[in-house]
Each structure stands twice: as structure tokens, then as C-alpha cells.
Design goal:
The radius of gyration is 14 Å and the shape is elongated. The chain has helices at 26-29, 61-65; strands spanning 14-21, 35-42, 48-52. The protein starts with 13 loop residues before the first strand and ends with a helix. The chain is built from 2 helices and 3 strands.
Amino acid sequence: MSNQGCIKCGSTDAGEKDVSMTGSGLSKMMDVQNNKFTVVYCKNCGYSEFYNQNASKAGNILDFFFGG
């Protein structure tokens, strides 16, 4: 993992969580959560970034968060 830290506060203490969200149109009306993301967040200041799980991951997602 890169040592650059959070872009907002510089902390290197981060966590990640998988979340699902509804889209628009029929999926929203039927409450179908077909959009899956990984949220990486700074445990110090709360800054968060969402990464689409359907997109290809070319490395560790925490490296993207820390700019590595």
C-alpha cells in the first residue's frame, strides 16, 4: 500500500465495504439493487470513494484510494 495517505487529511488508516444501490426506472420501482460498489473510506476524516465492482480492477483498490 502507498504511504501517500488520504487526499483530504493524510491518514493511512482506511477501510472498505461492499454496497449495493438501486438504479433508475424499473429497477428503482422494484427495489432491485443491481449496482454494486466497493466504498473505500478514511477512518480518520470519513472521506469516501466509490469503485464500481463491474469495472475491471487492475490492482488493490486501496492503492487507487491512496493514489498508488
